[in-house]
Specification:
Length: 311
């Protein structure tokens, strides 16, 4: 409440135009910018083949896109901001929401997964977190997933109570009253929402940004296609390509910052080897260092207690 939230920290000392922008465009749908990016599949295919031979691990386009987006959100922190009630916040973590179907059929059940990251994870670490989430929630009973549980509870309410509950949630969200547990299971309160349309052989599309929640970026990955591409010498070659499309909330940063951020993301897709190693932890000083030391002490104390209980 009063500018404090469980999922973000209020950004202070903003330039005047950045501070005023949310008041000119109070809803995310007002402020959406659309960006399309064609990606050459050759480097990705070579990388996938090499890694399968070297490590026996098979990476997918979706996992590589997720890892690239996570790295971008960490290295370009303004893209991990969000607007709530006309106030700009810096998100406290990097998170990804993604919809998956249990079966690729018309009647196949769809689930939305939400995963949390520091932003420094390597591609193998991102893949493990994603695989574990799928194993735990998609291949198991749907009741195990927090998002499904919450949605199931709301859907069992009569229509007028569902509307009232949503009105309460919106009010609570606008005033920082939603608890962390509820924000953690909400797929709409996330750094980026990803849709893998390649798996259902559909072209990438521009998806809307949800007004409920605080998702700043929605990215889609489309099906593979072939097109003639000319190099600087004028030589034309038919290349295997894939399109990514992004819907972006323009209020969190200016066009140049977004442009450089999306160029960074594309550099990871053009060379996935850059994602194989995790980023080092930043050096902490001052209050951040004291906070980390306090957290480490609490963690050590908790682990010691758990060991004693086991004995």
């Amino acid at each position: 409440m009063f500018g404090r939230r469980a999922d973000g920290v209020k950004v202070k000392d903003l330039p005047i135009i950045d501070k005023a922008m949310p008041y000119f465009m109070p809803q995310r749908i007002d402020a959406v910018n659309l960006y399309e990016q064609a990606v050459d599949c050759d480097p990705i295919d070579k990388f996938i083949l090499e890694q399968k031979k070297v490590s026996g691990i098979h990476y997918t386009y979706t996992e590589i896109l997720m890892a690239a987006a996570i790295r971008m959100l960490y290295q370009r922190p303004k893209t991990n901001r969000f607007i709530n009630n006309c106030v700009v916040y810096q998100r406290k973590y990097v998170s990804v929401s993604i919809s998956v179907k249990k079966k690729l059929t018309d009647d196949g059940e769809e689930m939305t997964l939400k995963m949390f990251f520091t932003g420094r994870e390597s591609l193998p670490e991102v893949k493990k977190i994603f695989d574990d989430e799928v194993q735990k929630n998609v291949l198991a009973a749907p009741e195990t997933h927090g998002t499904t549980k919450t949605a199931g509870f709301l859907c069992h309410l009569p229509g007028f109570l569902f509307k009232f509950a949503m009105a309460c949630l919106r009010f609570g969200d606008n005033h920082g009253l939603l608890p962390r547990k509820l924000l953690d299971v909400s797929p709409f309160h996330t750094s980026i929402f990803v849709a893998d349309l390649k798996s259902i052989h559909l072209d990438a599309l521009f998806h809307h940004l949800y007004n409920f929640g605080n998702t700043t970026i929605f990215g889609t990955l489309g099906k593979v296609y072939y097109e003639p591409v000319a190099d600087r010498a004028g030589n034309v070659e038919v290349k295997k390509m894939v399109k990514t499309k992004f819907s972006l909330d323009e209020r969190v940063c200016d066009g140049l910052y977004y442009s450089n951020s999306l160029k960074l993301l594309k550099s990871f897709l053009d060379n996935p080897n850059l994602l194989l190693e995790p980023l080092p932890e930043p050096e902490l000083t001052g209050k951040a260092l004291k906070k980390k030391q306090k957290q480490d002490k609490k963690k050590a104390k908790k682990e010691k207690k758990e060991k004693q209980n086991k004995k």
